[in-house]
Specification:
single chain, 405 residues, mainly beta, five-stranded antiparallel β-sheet, four-stranded antiparallel β-sheet, 2 helices, 29 strands, 6% helix, globular, Gluconolactonase, TAT_signal, hydrolase, SGL, SMP-30/CGR1_Lactonase
């Protein structure tokens, strides 16, 4: 037994007691009139909306972590992004990049430049970009089928083509009901092998294709010289618009069938399937050249798919953010059924928005300009490639892309 005059050493304080002690000390100082020093505000990293704004490219300073332009709206989004990854400017050099598609066999990303009428190849190992096809007839959407063959939508020739393994080109669709197509835009392959594509009139312009012949919907007054710089186009391509459609090409017979009309969904643009192929998502964009009326509603629509037929059409997402109507364009699904959608809009809102399978916006990626289209790629399919005007951005994510490309 210890003598009463010897004091016991104090027991070590727990973390909670230390914290509470600090709180109580602050309360004590306040009660005695002693003023504590206020904590200095923490520095904020530059972002898309900061002044000065975030810098991009090789000359930019080292990026900050976590990336200030990766924004989780719902906690579930944090499980889909990798906290140690930054949004990155991978390449600049196009005019209007579209149709990114990943070739698993070639380990490269294919890109369309609809204005320059070229296709580019981005190599995974080196990050270099080269011309893949020097003239692509203003191709837009691309995808690879289960056999690794490239399928492209051509604005200039107003057709959908497939490049075979021997280098030959097969025309999959260029007419419907004895009328030429408009400007096939986006294309996806269903697990059953069928090919689905949208056919609005966005490419019926001088810049991204060619206008109609005089009197057509995209050249009603006949002032546009639609035959210039396109002897092949003038001779063989379609010269007059028809209504917008979403089409399906049968994998066995090659039959072209309209699955959605302009009256059912105006301004069809980007499209993709749910991971199990039971839901088709279609973006309805604004009016195209020569289109009468208000055009599409700038929303994402969903349809149940059964035996090649679409049912139960509904609005999946309204694309509203902070009171602004975003302009959706292209989208892809990840393996968990979330939709990653490229969108245009005001600076600070444009970029990519992500929706859960229930249609709830759960996160977004801020970029300095709107994103026209995107896809998942890389050997693990865990890199998001985003086309934004003349630039290609990338982000390593903690999920993988569903489907073929």
């Amino acid at each position: 037994m210890m003598p009463e005059s010897v004091a016991m050493p104090p027991a070590p304080l727990s973390r909670r007691e230390i914290i509470m002690g600090g709180i109580m000390a602050g309360v004590g100082m306040a009660a005695t009139g002693t003023r504590a020093h206020a904590a200095a505000p923490l520095a904020q990293p530059p972002s898309v909306v900061s002044i000065p704004a975030r810098q991009w490219g090789p000359g930019a300073p080292p990026p900050y972590l976590p990336d200030p332009d990766i924004i989780a709206i719902d906690p579930s989004f944090s499980n889909l992004v990798y906290g140690n990854a930054n949004l990155r400017l991978a390449w600049r050099g196009g005019d209007w990049l579209e149709g990114p598609a990943w070739s698993a066999e070639g380990r490269f990303l294919l890109l369309s430049d609809t204005i320059r009428a070229r296709q580019y190849r981005y190599l995974w190992e080196t990050g270099t970009v080269s011309v893949f096809r020097p003239y692509s007839y203003n191709s837009n959407g691309n995808t690879f089928d289960a056999e690794g063959r490239l399928i492209s939508c051509e604005h200039g020739m107003r057709r959908v083509v497939r490049w075979e393994h021997d280098g030959s080109c097969s025309v999959l669709a260029d007419r419907y009901h004895d009328a030429p197509l408009n400007s096939p835009n986006d294309v996806v392959v269903h697990p059953d092998g069928s090919i689905w594509f949208t056919d609005p009139g966005y490419g019926d312009t001088i810049v991204e294709g060619h206008p109609d012949a005089p009197g057509g919907r995209a050249n009603r007054m006949g002032r546009e010289r639609w035959t210039q710089d396109g002897e092949i186009v003038a001779q063989y391509a379609g010269h007059a618009r028809q209504d917008d459609h979403v089409f399906r090409i049968d994998p066995h017979s090659g039959e072209l069938r309209a699955v959605l009309t302009q009256q059912q969904l105006a301004g069809p643009n980007g499209l993709c399937f749910s991971p199990d192929g039971t839901i088709l998502y279609v973006i309805s964009s604004g009016p195209g050249p020569g289109q009468d009326g208000p055009g599409g509603d700038q929303r994402i629509h969903a349809f149940d798919l059964h035996d090649g037929e679409l049912r139960n059409g509904r609005i999946f997402a309204d694309m509203m953010l902070d009171g602004h109507q975003l302009g959706p364009d292209g989208m892809r699904a990840d393996i968990f059924g979330n939709l990653w959608c490229g969108a245009g809009g005001p600076l600070g809102l444009c970029g990519v928005v992500t929706y859960s399978p229930a249609g709830r916006m759960i996160g977004r990626l801020r970029l300095p300009r709107g994103v026209s289209n995107l896809t998942f790629g890389g050997p693990k399919r865990d890199t998001l490639f985003m086309c934004a005007a003349d630039a290609l951005f990338t982000l390593v994510v903690n999920t993988q892309g569903a489907g073929l490309s």
